[in-house]
Design brief:
Blueprint: H1 2-22, H2 39-44, H3 47-80, H4 86-98, H5 101-112, H6 117-120, H7 126-132, H8 135-145, H9 147-155, H10 163-171, H11 176-186, H12 188-204, H13 207-215, H14 221-229, H15 236-262, H16 283-314, H17 330-369, H18 374-388, H19 391-401, E1 403-404, E2 407-408, H20 413-437, H21 441-449, H22 454-465, H23 467-482, H24 486-491, H25 499-508, H26 512-540, H27 543-546
Antiparallel strand pairs: 1-2
Helix pairs in contact: 1-19, 3-4, 3-8, 3-9, 3-12, 3-14, 4-9, 5-13, 5-16, 5-26, 8-13, 9-12, 12-15, 14-15, 16-26, 17-20, 17-23, 17-25, 17-26, 20-23, 25-26
Protein name: Iron(III) transport system permease protein
InterPro entries: MetI-like (IPR000515), MetI-like_sf (IPR035906)
Keywords: Cell inner membrane, Cell membrane, Membrane, Transmembrane, Transmembrane helix, Transport
């Protein structure tokens, strides 16, 4: 019964809005919507929409190549060399992964716009403005934002290339360049995954599209969809057709990656006799070069945009330059009154509620996915498809599906919160799948044998054993929702903008100082909240729950009531 209810939830929250919106391109007059039909594709392949698709394809390919190359290089430095900063690289990847792309874009805009930080400091470089406010700037921001995906895709693959292969190549006199090429070929499945994920993320990104690309008058597909949704009159058929084309391009990349993955057996090199690889000594020159490269990466990805944000927030008038009388906190005071009291608290409330719902649904879905059944495989494909769907497309589906006479929910906080939970549900179920799979079915069988119902099993077994991964999944989901832009932009109730909308509105209104102050306050408060919640978890949750491990074999569970942990214990 619970499994059927979860499938209904997935159908209502994911399949219904997506299908009802996407079918508009094939079914004229669907739900009374004017237009529609296959003629929408002709309009999507012409004019502004076609230019946006071409630009997205160009940006996606180039940025994915850069991301895959940088991710492979960084994972090699961290996993296969003697570079002392290996752990620093790991930490940097997580910081980049958790940083919304539109915050980086806003930082660049505050820095290089006419009258921006560089102009105020007397460093106005028109050439730099031309580079950043154009395809090169969009590619740069997206490529660096998606390096963590490439890094995570390739880092674990290095352990599958044993050290004996390199030693054999050395014995046979293979040149270093040739040895490097052979190693890269063995990593082909991981590199293909890195490219495909980065490409899909670039195509579906709305943060850069609505900030940097929009200010550069460089149309991309996600902004073309947004423009069609807010046209006068609303053009749902064009938005639907453009979404289909965007999904088609993304699907081709994912299918090519899947084809490489199916041939992964040809790249298998790890055996029972494999030896750990010898770390490559970089030497003095190599270490210095690697450190300089890491410094440049940090500056371009975070440091320089952060400089634009910080300087904008603290200077009364940017044009007056750096001087003590020009330093002020008035923008922080204004942001605290207008931003934190409204958008920040509104987003925080929705994030707490939506993350809780997403984790609860994700836990149930992970339980279904862990079963070796055809239904589980079909559900897995559906959730993977939802993860690959750009957030803007799902949000557009919510506009169309829940703005009907029988479901008049559009423009309400309820729908915005539900969309947050629905968007986080697939990734949360994926995060919890591994821990849930480790729960042996004998635990539940023993509990039922001794008269415990499903609720008691959840309370006394599942939650204690999975407390740490559940908390981590909730924290990650809530943090992501706080800065979720596409759904916030399309679904927020009139007069109640959430935090991401308030931040982007400041940028679009050229009020960079107020936006920068609000951004710094919001990021600081979110980091403080994360630290406080982790501190509370470590001290309030029983220590056994935090260190709980799953029995390795069925024999670890004795057929005695004492084997069933009481509430509050592991």
């Amino acid at each position: 019964m619970a499994g059927a209810a979860l499938l209904v939830v997935v159908g209502v929250l994911l399949l219904y809005p997506l299908l009802s919106f996407l079918l508009l391109s094939f079914v004229p007059g669907l739900f009374g919507q004017a237009g529609g039909g296959v003629g929408s594709f002709a309009r999507a392949l012409d004019g502004y929409a076609l230019e946006a698709l071409r630009n997205s394809l160009l940006v996606g390919v180039v940025s994915a190549v850069i991301s895959a190359a940088l991710g492979l290089l960084l994972s090699w430095l961290a996993r296969r060399t003697t570079l002392p900063e290996g752990r620093v690289i790991e930490g940097l990847m997580w910081v980049l992964l958790l940083t919304p792309s539109y915050l980086v874009s806003v930082g660049w805009l505050a820095l290089i716009q006419r009258g921006g930080v560089l102009s105020g400091l007397g460093l106005d470089w028109p050439g730099l403005r031309t580079v950043i406010l154009g395809p090169s700037g969009v590619i740069l921001v997206l490529a660096l934002a998606h390096v963590p995906f490439s890094y995570l895709a390739t880092a674990s693959a290095w352990s599958g290339v044993g050290g004996e292969l390199d030693e054999a190549a050395r014995v046979h006199g293979v040149r270093p360049s040739r040895r490097t090429w052979l190693t890269v070929r063995l990593l082909a499945p991981a590199v293909a995954a890195a490219f495909a994920v980065s490409f899909a993320e670039s195509l579906g990104d709305f943060g850069v599209a609505s900030t940097l690309a929009a200010n550069a008058h460089f149309p991309v597909a996600t902004f073309a969809i947004y423009r069609a949704l807010y046209a006068n009159p609303l053009d749902f058929p064009l938005a639907s057709a453009t979404s289909w084309l965007l999904l088609l391009i993304t699907g081709v990349a994912l299918l090519l990656q899947a084809r490489v993955a199916r041939r992964a057996r040809a790249y298998a090199s790890l055996t029972g006799r494999s030896r750990p690889p010898r770390r490559v000594p970089l030497g003095w020159a190599g270490t210095v070069t690697a450190r300089l490269g890491l410094t440049a990466l940090v500056l371009l990805a975070l440091g320089i945009p952060a400089l634009g944000t910080v300087v904008s927030a603290f200077l009364r008038r940017i044009s007056d330059g750096l001087s003590v009388p020009n330093i002020t906190l008035e923008y922080f005071v204004a942001a605290a009154h207008t931003g934190l009291g409204g958008p920040f608290m509104y987003s925080a409330l929705l994030a707490v509620l939506a993350a809780t719902v997403a984790v609860a649904l994700g836990l149930g879905l992970a339980g279904l996915l862990s079963r070796p059944t055809p239904l589980a495989r079909g559900l897995d494909l559906a959730l993977l498809g939802a993860m690959a769907t750009p957030g803007l497309v799902l949000a557009a589906g919510y506009i169309f599906a829940f703005n009907r006479p029988f479901l008049p929910l559009y423009g309400t906080s309820w729908l915005l919160g539900v969309s947050y939970a629905a968007g986080g549900m697939p990734s949360t179920s994926r995060l919890l799948l591994g821990p849930v799979t480790q729960l042996h079915r004998s635990l539940g069988e023993a509990a039922r044998t001794h008269g415990l119902g499903p609720g008691a099993v959840l309370r006394t077994i599942t939650v204690p054993l999975l407390a740490a991964p559940l908390f981590s999944a909730w924290l990650l989901s809530a943090t992501h929702i706080m800065f979720e832009l596409p759904m916030s932009q399309l679904l927020y109730p009139p007069g109640s903008p959430p935090l991401p909308v308030a931040l982007v509105s400041c940028s679009n209104n050229f009020d960079y100082s107020l936006g920068a102050a609000l951004e710094l306050e919001a990021v600081g408060l979110v980091l403080l909240a994360v630290w406080a919640l982790r501190w509370i978890f470590a001290r309030v949750v029983p220590a056994g729950w935090q260190r709980a491990t799953v029995p390795a074999t069925p024999s670890a569970v004795e057929p005695h009531p004492a084997s069933i942990p009481p509430a509050g214990t592991a």
